[in-house]
Automatic annotation (TrEMBL):
Annotated organism of origin: Saccharomyces cerevisiae (strain Kyokai no. 7 / NBRC 101557)
Domain of life: Eukaryota
GO biological process terms, semicolon-separated: ubiquitin-dependent endocytosis
GO terms under cellular component: cytosol; plasma membrane
Encoding gene, per UniProt annotation: K7_ROD1a
Protein's name in the database: K7_Rod1ap
Length: 414
């Protein structure tokens, strides 16, 4: 919750950043970067102390970082050796102007002298001035113990009590989204509050913030059917389709396969379906690093029971000297196969489709391998792929790493 380089006796009982308008500390942006509306980020810095402490300033900042773990292959006397180098880039920063601490304290003194218990203060940022007045509540005054203000001493004394310092900012819709599920690449955000104290170490409190970009409700990808239509000359015509190009992480999609056999005696064998993630990343120098991982897979061993029919036919003709005719005498003018492909509900197993500046790119596709059993006994394989877009939906729950796990992982970079 908070940290300092030592543990002084006047350590706050509570020092925390609390966000008001967000669920699970997630800042949700709807739509692509060039169309998304700005969003409000607001909250309070909460401070609870059991004995008076002196502070010089209270600062708050929001920052975003892109970090990569770039492999390099070195040739040694023992052969090639791979090592990793760390690339880090600050992609966003937003500062609150010391939360206008001087004005806050002066208003608090004035209200205390007038017998009031409500104090208001303003804060401005480097993005835009925010003239709205927020209320700051305190269960005790900020008057020093001798009854005099301490502004002239360049610090302020907080007596025992609970304090809330409000803040807010308008975050642009073009903000780069968080990326936390990729191997060797990440984009993270954090809020950091710092209490500067005279002659004592600073107190620092951090809050992990996730910036999630989701599709707008009218996005074409949510209603666009994706299909591939092709033919294998003298063997089959086929169509493979899914209802929508966009698939929410943690949901599922229906696979529709339609095959029209042209070759008499052809049978359908096992069908393998896999969702593959392709990612690319690069630093300020060197080439582009390509990664590929399997996100989900599905195998239909005998979708139309053709394999079982062939085995049955062979068992009846196993005494024959010259092979068997695999044609069962039944001919279907078309084969239809439907299957449900589930997408893992975890951002550690897959990432959303995204393009982060010139450093990270993530895309997905569903691959198909369809086995065709020929009349002469040999097996042909039909291969196809459909491009899809994985996205994070606010209506579908997903599992994520905790902020501590993310930080430990990022420390292993380099």
């Amino acid at each position: 919750m908070f940290s300092s380089s030592s543990r002084p006796s006047k350590e706050p009982l509570l020092f925390d950043i609390r966000l008001r308008n967000l669920d699970n500390d997630v800042l949700l942006i709807k739509g692509p970067p060039d169309e998304a509306s700005s969003v409000l980020l607001s909250g309070t810095i909460v401070l609870s102390i059991t004995e008076p402490i002196q502070i010089k300033s209270l600062a708050l900042r929001l920052f975003g970082r892109l970090r990569l773990n770039i492999p390099t292959v070195l040739q040694t006397v023992h052969g090639p050796h791979k090592r990793y180098s760390k690339f880090e880039r600050n992609i966003y920063s937003h500062f609150w102007d010391d939360l206008n601490i001087e004005s806050y304290f002066q208003n608090l003194y004035d209200n205390h002298n007038n017998g009031k218990i409500t104090i208001s203060s303003k804060s401005s940022t480097n993005l835009a001035a925010l003239p709205k007045r927020k209320r700051a509540l305190s269960t005790a005054s900020l008057i020093s113990s001798n009854g005099q203000t301490s502004a002239s001493k360049n610090y302020h004394t907080l007596v025992k009590g609970n304090y809330e310092f409000p803040f807010s900012a308008i975050i642009p819709g073009s903000l780069v989204e968080s990326v936390e599920g990729l191997p060797n690449a990440a984009v993270t955000y954090a809020l950091e509050a710092t209490i500067e104290r005279p002659k004592q170490p600073d107190l620092i409190c951090k809050k992990h913030l996730r910036v999630i970009r989701t599709l707008a409700i009218d996005a074409v990808e949510l209603s666009e059917t994706v299909s591939v239509d092709n033919s294998w000359p003298e063997k089959v015509d086929y169509t493979i389709s899914i209802p929508t190009k966009a698939i929410a992480i943690g949901s599922s999609t229906m696979i529709n396969i339609l095959i029209v056999p042209i070759l008499k005696g052809l049978k359908l064998g096992p069908v393998r379906i896999s969702l593959v993630e392709n990612s690319q990343y690069c630093g300020s120098y060197g080439g582009v690093i390509n990664q590929e991982r399997m996100v989900a897979k599905l195998k239909l061993k005998d979708p139309l029971k053709h394999v079982a029919q062939i085995k049955k036919k062979r068992s009846l003709n196993e005494a024959a000297d010259e092979g068997v005719d695999t044609d069962t005498g039944e001919f279907q003018d078309k084969w239809e196969v439907r299957a449900l492909l589930n997408i893992p509900a975890s951002l550690t197993k897959c990432s959303q489709d995204c393009r982060i500046l010139s450093n990270i790119k993530v895309r997905h596709k569903i691959k198909f391998t369809i086995s065709l059993l020929n009349p002469d006994g040999h097996i042909s394989e039909l291969r196809a792929a459909l491009p899809v877009q994985l996205f994070i939906s606010p209506f579908v729950p997903v599992n994520v790493k905790t902020s501590d796990v993310i930080e430990r992982t990022l420390k292993t970079f380099g």
